[in-house]
């Protein structure tokens, strides 16, 4: 999914200097952003108080939206570099097209994973004939220096491994949880898991104390380490945890995001993750002139123009709050 804001704000993120090295309970409120004419998202990362969680650098939560009489998601072709996009649905379908020739309808509990590498472009739209409701999350993972200039590719994994306990079914999107590993390609130590809790569930999830974690609430009534987390909000948990208590007052859906703190300092501007102003400037020019990012074939409409760069040079920094 694209950042469609017409005045893109640069985000300096990465580095270990401001990583919380102990367990915390920091509740992050979303910022509401319009995507096109019919989709509104709740943006949790980057946040005023928290820029990254491990290599996770961008989190949008959308829905549950009734799109029976609406076009639903309509995101025109747009570019990415230096990151992976993770498409995750609880309800509805999203048709993905990209400049490598990828064409895939992504359905609930299926992983759509696009590795931009040096350059890719894609579009996302609800199919013309679509389900009544649309509900999901779109996330970005920053690529480390040694992998960010790789060739672009798209993966689709319809079947993902599970971790189960009484009252809990955890679907492993990326990385490893409790010894179970996702088939999705990763480039840094990371974990992403969808947690389905049954009403009355009271469980403890094993964690890696070297990772920092956050939990996004997708739906239902749940508490995370004793903190009630409303749908569309996210609780940052810091590092140093070996387990995480979860309770559900109703059927609830959560997403666990975690990973080793990302050491490199980054610039995230519009749909690009880079390391310098010059790199971002070149990527914008390449997109506007039609070079490097390829063509999304089959999309009925114009591609998305890039916003103007800010008048001051972009500089990479750490996790400055």
UniProtKB/TrEMBL annotation:
GO MF annotations, alphabetized: metal ion binding
Segments for region (Disordered): 298-321
Domain Pirin N-terminal: 41-141
Domain Pirin C-terminal: 193-291
Cofactor comment: Binds 1 Fe cation per subunit.
Residues binding Fe cation: 78, 80, 122, 124
Superkingdom, natural source: Bacteria
Keyword field: Iron, Metal-binding
Pfam family, one: Pirin_C
Name the UniProt record assigns to this protein: Pirin
Organism of this sequence: Streptomyces tsukubensis
